[in-house]
Sequence to fold (408 residues):
Amino acid sequence: MYMDDFYQKHQNPYEDLISHKHLGKLYEKLRREDRLEFFKLWKEYASKPGEFVAYDVTSISTEAKEVSLAEYGYNRDGESLPQVNVGTVYSQTSELPLCYELYNGSIADKSHLESMMCLLNKLGLNLSFYVMDRGFLTQGNLEELVQEGIYFLIGIPSHQEIYRKFLLEKSPLIRNPANHLLGLGVYGVKEEVKIEERDYQIFAYYSSAKAAQDETALYEKIKKRGEELERQQGKATRRKQEPYYNVEVQQGKVISYEKNEEKINESLSICGMFGFLTNVKELTAEGAIRHYRRRDGIEKLYEGMKNPLELYRLRTHTDTSTEGKFFLGFIAQIFWADMIRIMQWQTKKPAPTVKAVLNEMEKIQKVSYKMGDQLLAPLTKNQKDILSAFKIDAEEFRMWILQKQGSL
Fold:
């Protein structure tokens, strides 16, 4: 939106500049087949056969009326707007995004996996290990993964009976010194489990830090629901599932309510508990949580997409422009992820975040005189350290700037 203003203050490394007024035409030219061709080429650089990947879905809100993918659904940003869902495959080896797909906004996360696997097969991406959150754990997805010969690690949802029963069973005994995973801050155990006649490995973990957060959140839910029931007394109300209260309803009206101590105690007993399911028999409790924690790479990717890269809104009005703009956004995400990766490798970081890196480098200014161009001030030590982190020679960088026309 502000590209023209940006290049009035920043040096353009290319001779030509596309005005933001012409971006719509560029978006329209980026066809789906071009995107797929890019993914095929990109995988050769960013992926290795049989590697571990994280897969996740997020949503982007839009106010557009003509985007067919935009529908109301579970909005992760809490906005009352139609949305487009985005599923992304992220390499946990190269720490870079590999590909993505856009979906209808009303489709639940658990339904996306089959479509993504079809796309990966089309691209020839040979991935042998998927790491996913609990939203993807359905019997259908388990069967699909097993039949495709794909190994997986998925978070287990505590509200589903089979997994809740497992966590409740492990809760009283898990805090045994023998189960503590040193350096990881959790207790962990592993068992075999049979689901629909198939054998899997299941893990249970306990975190005291998570337990405190879960307990606070639990009592907040109980308080909020109690206040709702108080307001509903004597009034017609729609009956809903009550996990924490025993509610007496007569003729559709709430007559009385009281806390269900048994259910509350049950929920309290699994505060701090979480778990995973896998079909990798050799995976240990320590190995499983280490793999799962590396999912934060895709979470950081989505955070960067919505905030610094400002793709929290599409601001497009047709299907083709939406596809084209998000493809350019994906290219930007690759650069962003690569900068995060390089910064994480540094023993001593010259800046705490990618945004801080960009802010520091933006301080470099060039002024033009009749006798020639020069930097307004010499490169600082911090700027030189940043260049070094990205394997850029400071003197070559300085000379490159002065050889370019225009202001920086």
Notes: Residues 90 and 97 are 4 Å apart (CA to CA). The longest strand covers residues 51-61. The mean pLDDT is 89. DSSP finds 14 helices and 13 strands in the chain.
